[in-house]
Amino acid sequence: MKKISKDEIATFGENTRLVIGGREPSEYHGFVNPPVYHGSTVLAPTTKDLINHTPRYSYGRRGNPTSDALEEALKTLDGSAGVVLCPSGLSAVSTALLSCLSAGDHLLMVDSTYQPTRQFCDKVLGRFGIETTYYDPLIGAGIETLIRPNTKAVYLEAPGSQSFEMQDVPAIAEVAHRHGATVLLDNTWATPLFFDAFGHGVDLSIQAGTKYIVGHSDAMFGVVSASRKAWPALKSFHGDSGQCVAPDDIYLAMRGLRTMGVRLRQHQESALRVAKWLAKRPEVHRVLHPALEGDPGHAIWKRDFKGSSGLFSIVLQPAPMEAIGAFLDDLKFFGLGYSWGGYESLALPFDCKTYRSATSWDPGGPCVRIHVGLEDVADLIGDLDAGLARFRAARG
After folding, report:
1. Is residue 324 domain-shared with residue 234, that is, in the same domain?
2. Catalytic, out of 75, 152, 211, 263
3. Which of 108, 337, 347, 358 is most deeply buried (CB count within 10 A of its CB)?
4. pLDDT at 394 over 80
């Protein structure tokens, strides 16, 4: 098998890059997958080498051939200047934020953000003397009115992972850069396959790799990719803060990455079929899915995105909590759980009212977030159909 240069890999299609990125079989005796290196101590051949850090590896926390392989594959996928691996999605969020913020700085955070991100801003950044202002996800270029002299970062999530508002990423990025602020984006929903973060002005692209990269609900993992401008600070903070991922989790993330393309396309196809079916149901007030025509964010999604994933939400007709329980508790294929992105389908009731501060949340009924897995769509629809019948009966 001919060895392919990194520059040549960058010219190939996404599916090819997913399969071959970070792999060098000739370096590990022809085995297809990189070996899993377990280790903390790395021995240097001489005292001079040890003191001058001349070997490629110096300590397990600072990387090994297993982590290098995954970092290279992810870097190849999204065209970034560099990638760091983190032990969870939230640790990726915190690492990205702390790499570009200092005491006295001001952060603009989207009001529809993942709730643990909000808690990190309120409970941790605030304690460090960093002020957070939440903004309307639909603000677009109007975000300029919120920029202060000490605004150092603007954080986006497109779409919001519960309420699914779409953000005008290029418009916000243009304003932020004009004022010298770093642009961060949670790109977990679309992944680099369906949204080119750096091509739309993002400096730090974050993914909860626990979701679609791992893909099998069996490992915690996060990743931050950086533009050339943001890479030195990210690399420095990541190393200085002691972030590292266990080699077995890296292996699971690398295994999942190889099939992410085919899985994500199936999630997309199945989710759209389920979402369109739900949109016609009388028990459903509306479906929150930017890839559906008629969704408020559809025009931006169509302009900037190449696809959609398996996650969306529905707003049911007004009903008591007992009816929501009747709908969800006896579902056969939709588990009740907080994650998403794995092969299995999930459902989660939610209410953004309690924590929104820059915007109000009044969707018109109780909300359920749905992740459509890799089961047969006919089985999923049959399950939801029975659940909605229970909902209807309990609603009275």
Report:
1. no
2. 211
3. 108
4. yes
Tokens of 118: 């909000």
Q: Tell me the pLDDT tens digit for each residue of 281-322.
A: 999 999 999 999 999 999 999 999 999 999 999 999 999 999
Kindly report, residue by residue over 145-199, the tens digit of the pLDDT: 999 999 999 999 999 989 999 999 999 999 999 999 999 999 999 999 999 999 9
The rounded mean pLDDT for the chain is 94
Together in a domain, 249 and 308: no
State CA 338 to chain mean position distance: 14
Tokens of 134: 């939440």
Look up 186 and say whether it is catalytic.
Answer: yes
pTM, two decimals, is: 0.94
61 is catalytic: yes
Asked if 353 is an active-site residue, the reply is: no
211 is catalytic: yes
Any idea what the CATH number is for the domain that residue 352 is in? 3.90.1150.10
From the candidates 6, 61, 332, 353, give the one annotated as an active-site residue: 61
For residues 56-68, average pLDDT: 90
Rg, Å, the chain Cα set: 22
3-state secondary structure the chain: CCCCCHHHHCCCCHHHHHHHCCCCHHHHCCCCCCCCCCCCECCCCCHHHHHHCCCCCCEHHHCCHHHHHHHHHHHHHHCCCEEEEECCHHHHHHHHHHCCCCCCCEEEEECCCCHHHHHHHHHHHHHHCCEEEEECCCCHHHHHHHCCCCEEEEEEECCCCCCCCCCCHHHHHHHHHHCCCEEEEECCCCHHHHCCCHHHCCCEEEECCCCCCCCCCCCCCEEEEECCCCHHHHHHHHHHCCCCCCHHHHHHHHHHHHCHHHHHHHHHHHHHHHHHHHHCCCCEEEEECCCCCCCCCHHHHHHHCCCCCCEEEEEECCCCHHHHHHHHHCCCCEEECCCCCCCCEEEEEECHHHCCCCCCCCCCCCEEEEECCCCCHHHHHHHHHHHHHHHHHHHC
If asked whether residues 101 and 127 sit together in one domain, one would say yes
Q: What is the total residue count of the chain?
A: 396
In a domain, 307, yes or no: yes
Q: Kindly name the residue from 111, 168, 186, 295 that is annotated as catalytic.
A: 186
